[in-house]
Amino acid sequence: MPITEQQLLQILPNAGRQAGAFVSALNTAMNRYGIVGTPRAAAFIAQVGHESGQFRWLKELWGPTAQQVGYEGRADLGNTVRGDGSKFRGRGLIQITGRANYAACGEALGLDLINQPTLLEQPQYAAMSAAWFWSSRGLNTLADLGDLLKITRRINGGLNGLADRQALYDKALKVLA
Length: 177
Known about the structure:
Elements: H1 5-11, H2 18-32, H3 38-51, H4 66-69, H5 84-87, H6 99-109, H7 123-136, H8 139-144, H9 148-156, H10 162-176
Helix pairs in contact: 1-2, 2-7, 3-10, 6-7
Protein name: Glycoside hydrolase family 19 protein
GO molecular function: hydrolase activity
Keywords: Hydrolase
């Protein structure tokens, strides 16, 4: 069953008009990567809802903060060229971060994200990159198990925003049931 705009707004009330802009993009991306059925869809919507501030931020806000300064020169992110930290800041609904992730995502989606990283700020690519990331990290399996903690760690590297993610997940399970 495709997700409707009304369901998105019930789960993510702060999305406002953005919900309409993302309904089609989300349904297309979720179908492509097998994010189907209530457990998977609820977990995915909860996570992308949190990561994007309910579709308000498709690009990481840049200070740069101390953490963001740390993106520069991080080999694990593939940030080897001066300026990569800012150029490959978090983008899309799940905040793809780092040159290496942009390259892998671009290859999977057939996009030149190294030369056009801002493509991930467009709804269709913001949603598709999130679904690609989800699939590439095996998160459907964890969603089937209802393991929100492991899903959050794989997306965030820690448990930042866990209470909000849990609240969105609980709401999504009810709305999508």
